[in-house]
């Protein structure tokens, strides 16, 4: 599903680029554009600006950090009223996280597994230099959702 989403975004960006290049050619040859062409240019720039903005906001996220050891991952993570405590003995407890209560946790590299949980693909990352957990990780396309920062 993620691959299909990426292909759709790339197709949209390709269409926007073609529209902008066509309008640029028209502007170069005619030295002016109609109001409708300017509106079309602005509409074509919006998806490109969105992808660039998303890249800037997530530029400092390392999705596959090195040294994903139990000692480095264990600790208290929070975001507002939501929190998660991962203990070095492999137990965890949480509050205000859908699909997560308490039990045992384990990891394989940066991928986390929680017993008794309905979470899919929770992940340990480094966000802006700080260890963090993406409980609802779905991909590097910016749809990470809630981010729990280590305290």
Overall tally of domains: 2
Radius of gyration: 21 Å
pLDDT < 50 stretches: none
Distance between the termini: 33 Å
The computed structural class is alpha+beta
Strand content: 25-35%
Note the run of SSEs as H and E: HHEHEEEEEEEE
| Average predicted local confidence, pLDDT | 85
Which geometry do the CA atoms define?
elongated
Number of DSSP strand runs: 9
Residue share in helices?
25-40%
Main β sheet profile: 9 strands, antiparallel
Order of strands, widest sheet: 1-7-8-9-2-3-4-5-6
SSE inventory with pairings:
Blueprint: H1 2-30, H2 35-57, E1 61-62, H3 70-73, E2 75-79, E3 82-86, E4 91-95, E5 102-108, E6 111-114, E7 123-127, E8 130-134, E9 148-150
Antiparallel strand pairs: 1-7, 2-3, 2-9, 3-4, 4-5, 5-6, 7-8, 8-9
Describe this structure in words.
The chain has 151 residues and is of the alpha+beta class. The protein folds into two domains: 2-57, no CATH class; 70-150. The chain is 37% helix and 27% strand. Helix 1 (2-30) crosses helix 2. The protein is elongated. The two termini are 33 Å apart.
